[in-house]
Specification:
Number of helices: 17
Number of domains: 1
Number of strands: 2
Order of helices and strands: HEEHHHHHHHHHHHHHHHH
Radius of gyration: 21 Å
Membrane topology: Multi-pass membrane protein
Organism: Nocardioides nanhaiensis
Structural class: mainly alpha
CATH superfamily: MFS general substrate transporter like domains
Protein name: MFS transporter
Distance between the termini: 28 Å
Pfam families: ATG22
CATH class: Mainly Alpha
Largest sheet: 2 strands, antiparallel
Subcellular location: Cell membrane
CATH architecture: Up-down Bundle
Length: about 450
C-alpha cells in the first residue's frame, strides 16, 4: 500500500498494519524493549555502577588519586568521567549507525544485535573485583554505547508502528513499561544488596550478582520485540552511490547539510542537548550523591531509586494524557520547571534525613517519566520520512544513560569544590537554557517542514 503521509507528522506508512489488532500487537512487542533495557539503566547505570566503580578505584588510589590516561583524578570523579567518555564516543559513531539503519530493512535485527552485545559487556562487570577498575571502565563503555545504539533503532521504529495521533500515548506506555520492568528487577536487587547475609553472600558479591542479573534481563527480554516486530524496507532514502557504508556516509552528509531545511527539528535537538544532559546527570549521579554527600547506605539509595521507578510509571502515563489535551511541548516545559526546583532542593537537602530524600525521589519520579516519554514522541513529529533512524541517532547522541556536558560539569565542579552540593545545583543551567531554547520551537511549523500533517493536539 502507499503512504498517506510521512512519519514526521501525517499518518504513518502502516502498510498491512492498518489492521488495528496487528498494529497493536507490534506496539505491545515494542514496549518490551523499554522493559528489557531499563534493567541496565536502573540497576547498573543508575544505582550500582557509580558507587561500586568509585569503591574499586579507591582501592587502587595513591594519596586519594588514581591515574587515568596520565591525569591524576579523585576516584569519586571517575564514574561521571566514564559516562562523559561514553557519550563522546556515541556522539561520533551513532549518526553513522543511524544512516546505516535508514538504508536497511533490518532495524529490529540491529536493535537486538546491539542489545545482546551490550548485555554481554554488562555481564563482564561481574568480574570487576579487587582494584581492577580498568575492567569496569572498558566493560561499561561498551555496554553503555550499545545501550544508546540499540535505543536509536528502537525509537526509529516508533513512527513505523504508530500514527501521529497515537505517538504520545504509545511512547508514554513504552516508558511506563520501562520503569515498571527496571523497577521490578531493582526491587529484587534491593533485597539482595540490602540483606546479603540472608542469602549467604558478602556485600560485594551481592552487588556483582545484581549487575549480572541486569545483563541477563536485558538480553532475555529483547527476544520479545525481536520476534514481535516485523522489518520494513527503507523509504525515501537519498539517491547516493557506492557501497552500503559509503552510501550511509553520503546520506549522513546530506542530512547534516540539509538540517537548515528543518530548523525546528534542529532547534529542538539543541534544546534537548541541554535539558536531557541535566536529567541524565541527575539520574546517573543520584546514587553517588546520596551515598557520598548525604551519608545514606547503598541499600537506602536502592530503595529511593526503586521508589522513583514506580512513581515514574504513573508520571509517564499521566504526562502522556495531559499532552493529549495541552500538547507535548507545553507539558515538557512544565516538567523542566519542576526539574529546576528538584536540583535546588537537592543542593539544600540535609544529610542523613530520610523524609526529604523520599519527597525528592517522588518529585523526580513524577517528571522523569513525563519529560523523557514526551521528548521522544514530540521529536518523532519533526522527522522527515526515510530518516527516522538517522535523526534519532542525533537525538540519542544526547539521550538517556549518556550525558557529556552535564557529567563533565558535575565532575569538574566536584573536582574543584570537593563537594557534590554545588555540583548538583550547577545542573540548573541545563534546564534553564534547554527550556528557553524549547520555547523557540514552533511545533506546527516543524511538522510542516518534515512533510507531515499537524495532529489535533501539539
Amino acid at each position: 500500500m502507499t503512504s498517506t503521509g510521512g512519519p514526521g507528522g501525517g499518518v504513518a506508512d502502516l502498510g498491512p498494519l492498518r489492521d488495528q489488532d496487528e498494529r497493536r500487537g507490534e506496539q505491545r512487542a515494542w514496549y518490551f524493549y523499554d522493559w528489557a533495557n531499563s534493567a541496565f539503566a536502573t540497576t547498573v547505570a543508575g544505582v550500582l555502577f557509580g558507587p561500586y566503580l568509585a569503591e574499586v578505584a579507591g582501592r587502587a588510589a595513591v594519596d586519594d588519586r588514581i591515574s587515568v590516561l596520565g591525569l591524576s583524578i579523585d576516584p569519586g570523579a571517575l564514574p561521571p568521567l566514564v559516562i562523559t567518555a561514553s557519550t563522546v564516543i556515541a556522539a561520533l559513531v551513532l549518526p553513522i549507525l543511524g544512516a546505516v539503519a535508514d538504508r536497511t530493512a533490518r532495524k529490529k535485527d540491529l536493535l537486538a544485535g546491539f542489545a545482546w552485545v551490550g548485555a554481554a559487556a554488562a555481564a563482564v562487570l561481574f568480574f570487576m573485583t579487587g582494584d581492577n577498575w580498568q575492567l569496569g571502565v572498558v566493560s561499561f563503555l561498551v555496554a553503555n554505547f550499545c545501550f544508546a545504539a540499540s535505543a536509536v533503532f528502537n525509537d526509529a521504529i516508533l513512527p513505523l508502528i504508530s500514527s501521529p495521533e497515537e505517538r504520545d500515548a504509545v511512547s508514554s506506555r513504552g516508558w511506563a513499561m520501562g520503569y515498571a520492568g527496571g523497577g521490578l528487577l531493582l526491587a529484587l536487587n534491593f533485597g539482595v544488596v540490602t540483606f546479603p547475609e540472608a542469602l549467604g553472600l558478602g556485600t560485594e558479591t551481592a552487588v556483582r550478582l545484581s549487575l549480572l542479573s541486569a545483563a541477563i534481563w536485558w538480553a532475555a527480554f529483547t527476544f520479545i520485540p525481536w520476534r514481535g516486530i516485523r522489518n520494513r524496507p527503507p523509504r525515501d532514502v537519498e539517491p547516493v552511490t557506492g557501497g552500503a557504508f559509503s552510501r550511509s556516509f553520503g546520506q549522513l552528509w546530506r542530512t547534516l547539510k540539509e538540517l537548515r531545511r528543518y530548523p525546528m527539528a534542529l532547534t529542538f535537538l539543541v534544546a534537548y542537548l541541554f535539558f536531557n544532559d541535566g536529567i541524565q546527570t541527575v539520574i546517573s549521579q543520584a546514587s553517588l550523591y546520596g551515598t557520598d554527600e548525604l551519608g545514606f547506605p547503598l541499600g537506602t539509595m536502592l530503595g529511593i531509586y526503586l521508589l522513583v521507578q514506580f512513581v515514574a510509571v504513573g508520571g509517564a502515563i499521566g504526562f502522556g494524557r495531559l499532552a493529549g489535551r495541552h500538547g507535548a511541548k507545553r507539558m515538557i516545559l512544565v516538567g523542566l520547571v519542576v526539574w529546576m526546583a528538584i536540583v535546588t532542593a537537592g543542593m539544600l537537602i540535609p544529610a542523613g534525613q530520610l523524609l526529604p530524600l523520599v519527597l525528592l525521589g517522588i518529585a523526580i519520579g513524577v517528571v522523569l517519566g513525563g519529560t523523557q516519554a514526551l521528548a521522544r514522541s514530540y521529536f518523532s513529529l519533526l522527522i522527515p520520512a526515510g530518516k527516522e533512524a538517522e535523526f534519532f541517532s542525533l537525538y540519542h547522541a544526547m539521550d538517556r544513560g549518556t550525558s557529556w556536558l552535564g557529567t563533565l560539569v558535575f565532575a569538574l565542579v566536584y573536582q574543584f569544590s570537593g563537594s557534590y552540593r554545588p555540583a548538583i545545583f550547577a545542573l540548573i543551567v541545563f534546564f534553564v537554557v534547554g527550556g528557553l531554547i524549547l520555547t523557540r520551537v514552533d511545533t506546527a511549523r516543524g511538522i510542516r517542514e518534515a512533510g507531515g500533517t499537524v495532529p489535533s493536539h501539539v
